[in-house]
Q: What sequence folds into this?
């Protein structure tokens, strides 16, 4: 098991290095720079700015200097926000995005898990079709439609919940979490249903039933663990997706997370911020994929045997 | 298996905490009670150092935290005393003496001195600073030479402290709008000991603007700064005119998403929005007692023409294109009556200046001009491309122009959108035929618009060059004896410009806000300038949102 983790971690290093290199040169190829603005910038001012940010050096030298800083954990100063460095911006946004992601994941597991299991118990009946159709709608409905709809109903007509913000007004975390979670709930419902259907036809379930266990115990004690393996395999990429993909929800609800910085950085040609967040997020994605592989192995006896663990 | 029970528990706890919250008093009603203004500020500021940042949201924040030598009266836009209680001009108008208010203090209690300004202006102009707005101080003697590195000694700048409270500024030539510039943040004083405590004076990234470090001199002081969430200010007790300040505090929200901002306003989370989505305007315009406030703004939306490339290198083609734009219809339909048609680069009403109307919507003349240029009824037309930066409203306007030109002149025009920085690059490199553009004035004076088209000017981008025009703007106008004479010179210059037509003016911008009826002291003005010192919240007003 440890060997497996070690190998996977080593494999991650060249992947991340490639991400850094490609991103570094790609953003420099985009026309326009961080200091271009609608008003003409005096050449002297531009030169002074470039000197302050090391942009006056030849590109390969800038690249090496960046890698050097990176090994020290320094992602450099932000171009767009003078006085802030990228580490600070990421550490300000990450807890918020992570919190939102965790809530959304809980919403997704709760809604998706229940409807997936419910649907799988009586396949091809109304009990299956209704939750699965809802799941299909959930997958198809984009957050930029679903979020404003929720806001309109719960925020403006019913006046139950705040329409925007994060941790400022009681209850303002509910709507963003639900909006972000719903799309993932739909995936989980479909994966859960498929996994459960497969497990429910296995011999050991028949054995459990033959022992005379009530159906709910058969499901919760025996079927669920095996049936949820596809869901668990999905959780790692899903959480990484929640972290990187929450931009739309963050924008709708004015959530001060990472997503807004990430996307705006590209528009602003905030080189250090683009690089910093790309490196950070790609590292996270690699780690979460690894984590979900480990978790899946732990839940699946056949895989566990392969690693020789117990 | 206990995993499931644990999961159920977690989910239950999660939902009960979420639901247990909810409800409560709106920001607007608690704000009215406590004297706290909840202000939608458009976006997270780049920073708060007056000599480093640029932008409208930054302007609002900095002008609440700091005060200039003179400030604009929000009702008249005429300068009134700020840190300086008075100022006088020498006979020839080239030397200004500012008399500082002895009660003016920094927020840490230090008195403000003339020396603060000498040091701050040296900092603002220091070439190592990379201050984008350094040119604001260029009317000052030797300022340009110092900022561009031609002059190394900052002591030779035309700014001297005669004593603790007397500041003498020497200008290159009489500059009637110079006092106005004292309300622009690039000319503000900053607190030297604080800045030097956290780094070199020219460092762009030091921590002196953080809540725990910042020292400022305005009506409010910084009390909380949560990145991308809010900036909170409270009334400053050291401010010299604190008795007149009515608000106890302001909360600024980075309302990047204008659709969400409007929803926050409707839900009572904001007193004031920075803008309003275009499609919501008719709804609010139709309301009784509408919270929607629209006013002309010192800015013009126009199209740049590259006068160096065919077919628009021919002045007759440029005139034909401009005359075939039906600005009234455009303003009424595409822009939902939220803008005013423009026929000049200078917006009307800049301290009494009325721009000339050289041409109008005239299809016959447009067709005749086009025929004269060699394209009768559009025959032989080589094609034309309109470039704009990606945005839904810019696209709509470009499409409208495309249709108008097709219908009126029977010519084919294509439109091309570019991502913002790519578009900026194309405009600077003059790599376009016709390109969308906007210009917002930094100060209320026609000069701020007309000097764009000086030969080789950094913002010219059209290839327009005329020595006579340059002479009017650079030499004749500054030497004018009276405002009337000066404006007559500007009229002459603008007439020349609109005859040569290197740009096609389309509309005058407007400021558009949703303002809760309880907010008072926020008169509309051409600069969309809000002075928080004058703002108060009227408890008597019913706190509606206009619905």
A:
């Amino acid at each position: 098991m440890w060997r497996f983790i070690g190998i996977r971690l080593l494999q991650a290093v060249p992947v991340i290095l490639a991400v850094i290199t490609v991103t570094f040169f790609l953003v420099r190829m985009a026309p326009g720079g961080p200091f271009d603005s609608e008003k003409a910038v005096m050449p002297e001012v531009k030169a002074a700015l470039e000197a302050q940010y090391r942009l006056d050096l030849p590109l390969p030298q800038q690249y090496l200097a960046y890698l050097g800083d990176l090994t020290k954990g320094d992602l450099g100063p932000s171009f767009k926000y003078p006085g802030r460095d990228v580490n600070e911006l990421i550490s300000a946004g990450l807890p918020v995005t992570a919190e939102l992601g965790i809530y959304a994941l809980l919403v997704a597991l709760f809604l998706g898990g229940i409807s997936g299991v419910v649907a799988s118990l009586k396949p091809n009946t109304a009990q299956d079709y209704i939750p699965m159709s809802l799941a299909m709608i959930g997958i198809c409905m984009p957050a930029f439609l679903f979020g404003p709809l929720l806001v309109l109903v719960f925020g403006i007509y019913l006046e139950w919940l705040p329409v925007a913000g994060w941790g400022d007004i009681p209850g303002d975390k509910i709507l963003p979490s639900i909006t972000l979670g719903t799309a993932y709930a739909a995936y989980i419902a479909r994966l859960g249903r498929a996994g459960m259907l497969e497990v429910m036809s296995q011999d050991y379930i028949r054995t459990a039933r033959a022992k005379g266990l009530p159906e709910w115990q058969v499901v919760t004690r025996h079927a669920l663990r095996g049936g949820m393996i596809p869901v668990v395999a999905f959780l790692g990429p899903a959480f990484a997706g929640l972290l990187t993909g929450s931009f739309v929800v963050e924008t709708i609800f004015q959530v001060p997370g990472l997503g807004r910085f990430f996307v705006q950085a590209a528009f602003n040609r905030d080189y250090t911020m683009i690089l910093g967040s790309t490196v950070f997020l790609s590292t996270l994605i690699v780690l979460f994929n690894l984590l979900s592989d480990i978790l899946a192995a732990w839940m699946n006896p056949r895989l566990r045997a392969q690693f020789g663990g117990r | 298996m206990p995993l499931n029970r644990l999961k159920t528990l977690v989910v239950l706890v999660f939902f009960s905490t979420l639901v247990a919250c909810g409800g409560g008093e709106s920001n607007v009603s608690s704000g009215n009670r406590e004297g706290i203004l909840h202000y939608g500020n458009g976006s997270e500021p780049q920073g708060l150092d007056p000599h480093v940042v640029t932008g409208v949201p930054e302007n609002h924040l900095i002008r609440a935290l700091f005060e200039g030598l003179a400030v604009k009266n929000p009702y008249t836009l005429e300068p009134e005393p700020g840190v300086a209680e008075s100022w006088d001009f020498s006979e020839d108008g080239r030397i200004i003496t500012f008399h500082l208010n002895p009660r003016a203090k920094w927020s840490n209690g230090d008195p403000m001195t003339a020396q603060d300004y000498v040091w701050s202006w040296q900092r603002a102009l220091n070439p190592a600073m990379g201050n984008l707005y350094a040119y604001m101080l260029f009317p000052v003697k030797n300022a340009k030479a110092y900022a561009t590195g031609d002059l190394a000694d900052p002591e030779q700048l035309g700014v001297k402290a005669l004593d603790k409270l007397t500041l003498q500024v020497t200008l290159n030539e009489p500059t009637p709008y110079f006092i106005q510039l004292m309300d622009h943040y690039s000319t503000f004083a900053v607190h030297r000991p604080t800045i030097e405590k956290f780094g070199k004076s020219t460092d762009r990234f030091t921590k002196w603007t953080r809540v725990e470090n910042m020292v400022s001199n305005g009506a409010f002081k910084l009390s909380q700064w949560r990145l991308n969430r809010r900036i909170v200010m409270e009334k400053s007790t050291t401010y010299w005119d604190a008795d007149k300040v009515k608000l106890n505090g302001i909360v600024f929200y980075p309302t990047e998403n204008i659709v969400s901002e409007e929803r926050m306003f409707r839900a009572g989370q904001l007193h004031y929005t920075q803008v309003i989505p275009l499609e919501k305007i008719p709804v609010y315009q139709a309301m009784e007692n509408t919270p929607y406030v629209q006013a002309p703004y010192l800015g013009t939306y126009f199209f740049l023409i590259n006068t160096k490339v065919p077919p628009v290198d021919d002045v007759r083609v440029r005139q034909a294109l401009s005359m075939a734009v039906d600005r009234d219809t455009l303003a009424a339909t595409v822009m939902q009556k939220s803008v005013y048609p423009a026929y000049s680069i200078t917006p009307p009403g800049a301290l009494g200046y009325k721009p000339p109307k050289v041409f109008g919507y005239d299809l016959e003349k447009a067709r005749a001009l086009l025929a004269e240029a060699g394209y009768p009824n559009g025959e032989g037309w080589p094609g034309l491309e309109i470039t704009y930066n990606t945005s839904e409203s810019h696209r709509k306007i470009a499409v409208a122009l495309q249709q108008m030109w097709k219908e009126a002149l029977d010519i084919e025009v294509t439109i091309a959108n570019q991502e913002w920085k790519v578009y900026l690059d194309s405009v600077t490199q003059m790599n376009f035929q016709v390109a969308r553009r906007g210009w917002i004035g930094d100060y209320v004076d026609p000069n701020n618009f007309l000097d764009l088209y000086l030969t080789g000017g950094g913002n010219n981008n059209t290839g327009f060059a005329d020595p006579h025009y340059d002479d009017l703007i650079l030499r004749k106008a500054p030497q004018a004896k009276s405002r009337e004479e000066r404006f007559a010179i500007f009229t002459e210059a603008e007439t020349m410009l609109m005859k040569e037509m290197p740009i096609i003016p389309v509309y005058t911008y407007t400021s558009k806000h949703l303002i809760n009826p309880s907010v008072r002291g926020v008169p509309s003005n051409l600069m969309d300038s809000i002075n928080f010192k004058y703002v108060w919240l009227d408890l008597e007003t019913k706190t509606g949102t206009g619905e």
